[in-house]
Design a protein that fits this description.
Order of helices and strands: HEEEEEEHHEEEHHEEEE
Number of domains: 2
Oligomer: single chain
Structural class: alpha+beta
Distance between the termini: 16 Å
Helix content: 10-25%
Length: 281
Amino acid sequence: MKYIVAGVLAAAGALLLAAARPAASSRAPITTPELESRLLAAIDGTQSLRYVVAAQERVEGRYLPMRSTVKLTLTPLRIYLKNQQGAEALYVAGQNGGDAWVYPGTFPYLTLSLDPRGSLMLRNQHHSLLQIGFGLIASLLRTSEPAFVRSFRAAGDTVVGGRPCHVLRSSYPAFRYIAYRAGAGETTASVATKLNCGEYRILERNKLAVNTKLAAGQVIQVPNAYGSRTVVLVDERTFLPAGVAVYDERGLYEKYDFSNVVANQPIPATEFSKDFPGYKF
């Protein structure tokens, strides 16, 4: 079941901006430091979100599209998601023993309690339910690889879906897989967090299961950055992300487009209850 969060296919060689037209402006172009600073400030200042995400992720050589409606709060962490196939997921920090409630939307139509970081919920997707939102985009600019961070540049303006947007683009031709020797107690998930490279790529490259415990000294292949090319669209009014596309040596890796974004408007706690009207848990 897909959750994330965000179409064009790499096989067709299309870019994130293919459907966008240039935006006319008499203002001086925004600088890279200002754009990055305002983007990060907007993400850091967001405590609640409602949005729709159109996601496209490459899984085992195929692109799996999914459109989902999301609402979340960060303090406390509460997440509700419903995808186009009718599947629903609800996670509330401190409840249900740390598991998410999941209504799969298919037979036998039973509500399940699943580990949001477990293999069942991460099957055929790049990110866990707990990674939903704009945190991934912020992490791209705060990675432990300084050369990758320095590769981002403000690249003009565009209009997407009627919204004027700034374009933040990274070109990182040094992207490649490198050998990594695991330390004691490390897992594929902890290595991905440490290197900010995404666990899915580690699993795919090394043919490992989700959150595999690594033996001390075990050598695995990991990417040295998040992507070879990255395009982030930043809403000119809110400075929140309107979309992100990431490419690697094989083409488009993942793409997320955000619409109907409503930030920092209180969401009643009842909307994060299993019994909220309209939910099928």
